[in-house]
């Protein structure tokens, strides 16, 4: 089965991951023509889990390829509104799902997530709290406010009275994480699941203010989907026991 993983960039769509096959050779043109592609647009923070869920879905549906598109939820919602092909949308907040209005069919929350600070391994700048992100020697990056991770950060700012003097505001949580892991920033605010997925490449710092800011993740099939029944089955897998196990293992909270 061939897998496509796509990330939307500011200049267009960039193919990030290519193909793999269960056999020793690529499928021939006849196999490709007979296959069905399911387009799933999902928040960047879902990349690891939805790739695993898509693998499970393909294993259960012979001849079906899941094409995954990951980016900030606001970016994906805008693309869907502009006619980008998608059968299923999974957002990192309810606000961006609500933007789709009647385009989204019966959205359901399937997971929750909270924020955490990530730094270089060993936390060389000695960051201990949300307030420390404004220390003079700390370069901090956060998400754009239009994105769920940025909106959550703004809520923490309001609740604490602390406004982060960020060096940059990124389009997705994965972009924030990349700037920290590549040394372009000393610290960033990301989701707990992204920090967990980064493993030993980052250190984490929590703050009591993060506990009260919880993002709910909804998923929905979309009107006008070319494969609505398959889309419903994918949503059911995410909401079901197998999908929930994958999400819990990655650190997502229950709906």
Automatic annotation (TrEMBL):
SUPFAM superfamilies: Periplasmic binding protein-like II. GO terms for molecular function: metal ion binding; molybdate ion binding. One of its GO terms (biological process) is molybdate ion transport. NCBIfam families: modA. InterPro entries: ModA, ModA/WtpA. Belongs to the bacterial solute-binding protein ModA family. Molybdate binds at residues 45, 73, 173, 191. This is Molybdate ABC transporter substrate-binding protein.
